[in-house]
Amino acid sequence: MAERDNPAAGGIRIGDTGGNVTIGDHNHVEFTVRESGAGDEQDPRQAELLAAIRELRADLGRLADPAQAAGLDGELAGAESEIEESGAAGQGRLARLRQALADAGALTGLFASAAAVGQAVTALLGG
Fold first, then answer.
1. For each of the chain's 127 residues, which pLDDT tens digit applies?
2. CA 76, 79, 85, 88 torsion: positive or negative?
3. Can you give the pTM of this predicted structure?
4. Handedness of CA 118, 123, 125, 127 (dihedral sign)
5. Are the C-beta atoms of 107 and 69 separated by less than 8 Å?
């Protein structure tokens, strides 16, 4: 190995990074490829819920005192993250979201987006 290719001697080594680049000492890069096949398509009901969650979170941000909706927003954020990461919100998450919507009913009663989230949750929970 040539001196300039020897990282231990302070040289530079360039290798195939598969699309990732790192500069400096002791760097670490992780690259995860998610492949989707025909069986990995998102349930359209989950996609509908995700869109409704995003709309309701935007509506909650318009409240005069958004802190009033912190509990509901936390459940919405958790459901949003779960759907983005795994493709679906689990039954436990949906049940907590339903309860958070019920608890915040007086606060969200004027938002059509809250009704959309409620309907999507009900459809996914089956009743």
1. 455 555 566 665 555 555 555 555 555 555 554 444 444 577 899 999 999 999 999 999 988 888 889 999 999 999 999 999 999 999 999 999 999 999 998 888 889 999 999 999 999 998 7
2. negative
3. 0.65
4. positive
5. yes
